[in-house]
Design brief:
heterodimer; A: about 400 residues; 10 strands; B: about 25% strand; globular
């Protein structure tokens, strides 16, 4: 006997866009593409557990084929990240290739390769956006999570971009317990370079799961953040990532909806397609761009994405008065904290998340991704947030050839 | 007829040259390659109107040709005014 699957509801005609988006689109609105798992840094909260390159990463020709396909599907721009995308030797070629094929590029970088020459090149290029990652408005706060010297690297890149006359570049901040009190400082720092501030939500994805309890903003910080966003909303970008805060009252500008598999997705460095950049886990793996039919086949026909393209009708949240505002929050945040996907977000501003977290069965381990490209050896400037002492040089001259030498 | 926001339905219009339409089940995505603005057309009739603007002597004539009723006109005029403001459609010089 054939099992009878529950019928998927039909898309309504007309109505609000947000309701339409719940049923998915023919192509993503914006897609995140991580070009490599390689990274010069070892940030404690890396959403993709990056560090080492994966030998199976897409070749230049395969990456070009993906761009060709995105052009055919009219995906008008991609968010490129990693890892650190600019350490791929063909990064600048792929950037030009994408732009030449009507696929605009916004890329996130820690700034390591953005010297004066590259900054000038970017300033000359239309249709490219640069986001420099910075997770503290001061070196002290930033370097504790991103590593010693990373603040200096990022601000040097910002200086180079400003000096080259680059327009509309961004400073991209993940809001944590440590930097949530620095929002005005971030704004001032960003303004000083003529850049635009972009702040996004910290999720317990990748290595972020290891430090989430310690770094995610407190309830009071979330309320302050909400007030700050309402006051500064128009001039600050958020990637619509704080929609869980909308349950505090007035909806924030932008799309208040989980777009996973509906309007966004992730292509990872080996071509795997996940529902969202914060969901690198086999449960959210929809397919691979190398399989027959490529990315389009995965986006339009994967079972996983078809399942995600339905409005949520059950679960505790649908009975909450604020459900229409927050839509239950972030799927990845729930998943990686071991909460049910149809229940409250762990940071639910009505307090239901804390109750749910307290009620977890501690015998059950929270789900972990088996995809981990973290550096296995020591990394220069490794962040010391967790109290790991920095590694002293093995020989005194590893530090400086003149260290300890009495010159007189 | 001029709407409150200054959009003149009696003038000739067209989809801006740097704008692309991507059909979607509910209508279309509109993307401006110049200013990188993204917008949405929330009905297939509106998609037809935007695509047909260049073939008619005025926006009003386009609405008629696309079967937009009198009752629907104010809503469509507002949608076109919004698109004009975000530079998704532009004035055509010759009718």
């Amino acid at each position: 006997m054939t099992a009878v699957l529950p019928a998927r509801p039909d898309r309504p005609v007309g109505g609000r866009l947000v309701d339409q988006f719940e049923y998915g689109l023919d192509a993503p609105i914006c897609l995140t593409w991580e070009l490599t798992y390689a990274c010069n840094l070892a940030c404690v909260h890396c959403l993709s557990s990056s560090g080492r390159r994966d030998p199976r990463e897409l070749s230049t020709a395969e990456a070009e084929a993906v761009i060709d396909e995105l052009q055919r599907m009219q995906v008008f721009y991609v968010n490129v990240g990693g890892g650190e995308p600019t350490v791929r030797p063909d990064f600048w070629h792929l950037l030009d290739y994408a732009i030449g094929h009507d696929v605009g590029v916004k890329f996130s970088t820690n700034g390591i390769k953005l010297d004066k020459a590259r900054a000038a090149q970017l300033a000359r290029t239309d249709y490219v956006d640069v986001q420099i990652s910075l997770d503290g408005a001061t070196a002290e706060v930033n370097d504790a999570v991103r590593g010693t010297g990373s603040f200096a690297t990022a601000t040097r890149a910002l200086e180079n971009l400003a000096e080259a006359g680059m327009k509309d570049f961004k400073v991209s901040v993940v809001v944590t317990r440590e930097n949530a009190g620095q929002l005005d400082e971030f704004k001032a720092l960003t303004d000083s370079y003529g850049a635009q501030l972009r702040i996004t939500r910290f999720r317990p994805s990748g290595r972020g799961a290891d430090v989430w309890d310690r770094l995610h903003p407190t309830q009071q910080q979330q309320r302050d953040l909400y007030a700050w966003l309402l006051a500064n909303g128009e001039s600050v970008l958020t990637g619509d990532s704080f929609f869980h805060l909308s349950a505090l009252g007035e909806a924030l500008p932008g799309l208040n909806l989980c777009g996973a598999g509906r309007v966004v997705c992730l292509i990872d460095p080996v071509g795997d397609v996940y529902a969202c950049p914060f969901a690198i886990h086999e449960q959210f793996l929809a397919g691979n761009v190398r399989s027959p039919g490529g990315f389009q086949q995965v986006w339009q026909h994967s079972e996983l994405f078809a399942d995600l393209r339905n409005p949520q009708t059950g679960g505790a949240c649908t009975k909450c008065a604020h459900f229409d505002a927050c839509r239950g929050g972030c799927m990845a945040a729930k998943f990686f904290t071991g909460l049910p996907l149809d229940g409250p977000d762990p940071e639910c501003v009505q307090g239901y998340g804390e109750t749910a977290l307290a009620g977890r069965d501690l015998q059950l381990a929270t789900p972990r991704s088996h995809i981990d490209h973290s550096h296995t050896g020591p990394v220069r400037g490794q962040p010391t947030l967790l109290g790991i002492p920095s590694i002293p040089p093995a020989k005194i001259c590893d530090e400086s050839p003149l260290a300890g030498v009495e010159l007189r | 007829m001029t709407t409150a926001v200054g959009f003149d339905l009696d003038l000739p219009w067209r989809k801006a040259s740097s704008v692309a339409l991507r059909p979607e089940p509910f209508g279309a995505l509109v993307y401006h390659f110049g200013n990188r603005k993204l917008s949405f057309l929330k009905s297939t009739t509106l998609v037809a109107v935007v695509q047909a603007l260049a073939d008619h002597p005025s926006a009003a004539a386009t609405l008629t040709a696309c079967g937009v009723t009198e009752a629907q006109r104010p809503a469509y005029a507002k949608a076109l005014a919004d698109l004009a403001r975000s530079q998704m459609i532009e004035r055509r010089e010759t009718p």
